[in-house]
Amino acid sequence: MRKPLVKSAALLSFGLVIFPAWADLKPQWELGVGVAGIDFPVYRGADERKSYLLPVPYVQYHGDVVQVDRERMRGLLFRRDLVEMDISINGSVPVKSNDTAERYGMPDIDPILEIGPSVNVHLYFDEKRRTNLDLRLPLRAAISTDFSSVSFRGWLFQPSLNLDFRNMKQSGWNLGFVAGLLYADQRYHQYFYDVAPQYATATRPAYTAGGGYSGSQYIAALSKRFPRYWVGGFMKWDDLEGAAFMGSPLVTRGRAFSAGFAVSWILSTSDKMVEVSDD
User: Fold this and answer.
1) Per-residue H/E/C for the chain
2) Domain, as residue range, for 90
3) How confident is the model at residue 33, as a pLDDT?
4) What is the pTM of this model?
């Protein structure tokens, strides 16, 4: 599945057009609260799934350096018309091993925070920046914690193409697509997919994962900001075909679908208005 993605990136990059930046006036900050629901595998490659319905904060902040929105929190390190560097943040939820058949009796997986720099290249944007095509190149360090200690778990590289359509046909709806590849070093893969000899069984042989290719992900997201509330949802397809850890007995499903939604009510907004470019 990698060849079509690489071919698409090459073809789309030929459409590079340079236009002046376009900015809208928006409140410098907004605060609110909402509820989100999500359903996904407990870890990549697992049969078991988790569903959550939980309260979530709604935070928007448009500063000169730090920017927070519904998609990500960014600390801009460098910015030009076509290239910027910011801080990329991601993570994963904890896994109770005794809740899964494949990991039963093994150590739990702690929650992980991923953080690191990302170089983002604007391959295409229209005059008002309502349609954007970006190449994002984040390199993140993974850190786990059991809330008594912190451990380094390796590095991840996640190049992706991001295509966004904002305010489609002046409706206020925003549609986004992401297609990306994942790579991680051996230390990261071992944390999730190694089976140490003391945890081997008749149906779970010992296994040592290698580093390298980690699969691909494809995401579609839709959202709209109404005067006093915001709604959004996403769908994600995760494909582990060809991943370096596919031989692990802890991997029982090579492809998986995830989905989620959120509704947030905006309770307070800044009186101060600032120019915000949609890039």
Assistant:
1) CHHHHHHHHHHHHCCCCCCCCCEEEEECEEEEEEEEEEEEECCCCCCCEEEEEEEEEEEEEECCCEEECCCCEEECCEECCCEEEEEEEEEECCECHHHCCCCCCCCCECCEEEEEEEEEEEEEECCCCCEEEEEEEEEEEEEEECCCCEEEEEEEECCEEEEEECCHHHCCEEEEEEEEEEEECHHHHHHHHCECHHHCCCCCCCECCCCEEEEEEEEEEEEEECCCEEEEEEEEEEECCCCCCCCCCCCCCCEEEEEEEEEEEEEEECCCEEEEECC
2) 2-20+29-269
3) 96
4) 0.83
